[in-house]
Predict the 3D structure of the following.
Amino acid sequence: MTKAINTSGKRKTAIARCTTRKGTGRILINKVPLEIIQPDLVRFKIMEPLLFVTDEVRDEIDMNVRIKGGGFMSQADAARISIARALVSWTESSALREAFISYERQILVGDSRRKEKKKFGGKGARSKYTKSYR
């Protein structure tokens, strides 16, 4: 029986779902290999969790990440969270989990902040229209 792990990550309105299987080390982001993702900043952000595991672990799994919604940086953060969670589940290592949390907690635990809703009486969530009587 082949082992497959499904994990997800969220950032703002972006949702990433990662399917991890035994394989040869291929990582696909929306059917595009991770090595050719542009811009570079996004690629490096997505690759960050992979730096914590050995080449041995990295070369034995295939990851397929599907991302919907949000902007490109939110999508990168969501993909990063789902990949990190997949690596922790695959290795079943508490040391790896601790390494992620000590490096940056946002790798495993998503950021719950969302955009505040616009209210009446102004052009944004908090600002109000002003009126001058002079």
Notes: Residues 4-107 form a domain with the Ribosomal Protein S5; domain 2 fold (CATH 3.30.230.10). Helices lie at 40-47, 55-58, 72-91, 94-103. The chain has one domain: 4-107.
